[in-house]
Design brief:
The chain has 322 residues and is of the alpha/beta class. Helix content is 40%, strand content 19%. Helix 2 links the parallel strand 2 and strand 3.
């Protein structure tokens, strides 16, 4: 297709130290343009690896923005949306893989359903297992199980659909057996097609969320505005989870909890926000004490107790913002 025509789909990739994944994804997207008129926009958040060098080499094939500092996911996406030409925005993580047919099916679904503002495929791990990508808006039960570490005990794939654990599907939508076409509160932003006009109507992603909860907040605002977010189980994409976060483990750890508190402050102000903040601090204290005990008895001399200690300090600073 001619590249000078207004492309209907803008593919947005936000990158942070993800060179190895970009090196696979971006050439694949460029090759995909033989079958589909897509615009490719990459925003790099001040990577320190070879990402920028690689992207500069193929700059004629993409729209590139390189930030001088890590602007966070939400702001980077908004930067890309502001220069995009498409009527639809495909968000895709550097560690995700998608085929042109999947994009076409997502696009066709949105075209046929005007009140659906977001459509997402089933996500699979590279080994073929199903990934939990659907979610329900967090309430106190969900948040408590997360902060107490109980959620980590849940299987991360479809093995939870049968047996006694299936009762938890009522609380955690990602653990409920999926329907072929399912309206959900939100899905992970690793791979989702969005209507640009709805994003602009809602003011884009909320940039106070540096990392995590930005798609939950967007889903909440979409639902209030009368739009739907749909999960399509018959369409599949591959996703390797948290490839960038593993390269900077402490900050994502803190930002997840910071975003949790900010989400409650925005949508559930009052006692719930304060309770979530103190539950988060108690969780960090408990883990700090536990890891300190383990370190004392030399079961795990390396440990990672400094993460919890730093987390607690940052939470104390965050309390002043609430």
């Amino acid at each position: 297709m001619p590249q000078n025509r207004l492309q209907d789909i803008s593919v947005i990739v936000v990158s942070y130290n993800a060179h190895d994944h970009l090196n696979v994804l971006i050439p694949h997207l460029i090759e995909m343009r033989r079958e589909l008129a897509i615009e490719i926009i990459v925003v790099d958040n001040a990577s320190s690896d070879e990402s920028v060098r690689f992207l500069r080499e193929i700059e004629t094939e993409i729209v590139l923005r390189v930030n001088s500092e890590n602007a966070g996911f939400a702001r980077a996406v908004n930067q890309a949306i502001s220069v995009s030409q498409g009527s639809f925005i495909l968000l895709i993580n550097p560690d995700a893989r998608i085929e042109s047919g999947v994009i076409e099916e997502l696009h066709a679904f949105l075209m046929g359903n005007p009140r659906v503002a977001a459509a997402a495929p089933r996500l699979l791990y590279p080994d073929g297992r199903m990934q939990s990508s659907r979610g329900t808006f967090p309430g106190m039960i969900v948040i408590s199980t997360h902060l107490l570490g109980l959620k980590k005990l849940m299987p991360r794939d479809e093995t939870v659909f049968s047996g006694p654990l299936r009762i938890l599907g009522g609380f955690f939508k990602q653990y409920a057996k999926p329907e072929p076409v399912q309206t959900v509160d939100y899905t992970t932003g690793a791979c989702v097609l969005l209507r640009k006009d709805v994003l602009e109507e809602l003011g884009g992603f909320d940039e106070q969320f540096f990392l995590y909860y930005e798609e939950i907040d967007l889903g909440f605002r979409m639902q209030k505005a009368g739009y739907r977010w749909v999960y399509l189980d018959g369409i599949q994409a591959i996703h390797e989870v948290a490839a960038s976060s593993r390269r900077a483990p402490l900050r994502p750890y803190f930002e997840r909890y910071r975003s949790m508190v900010l989400y409650f402050r925005k949508h559930h102000p009052g006692w719930r926000t304060v309770l979530v903040l103190y539950l988060t601090a108690l969780s960090a204290l408990f883990r700090l004490a536990l890891r300190g005990s383990i370190r004392m008895f030399r079961i795990d001399p390396g440990g990672s107790w400094r993460s919890e200690k730093e987390m607690l300090k940052r939470l104390v600073r965050l309390r002043r913002e609430i």
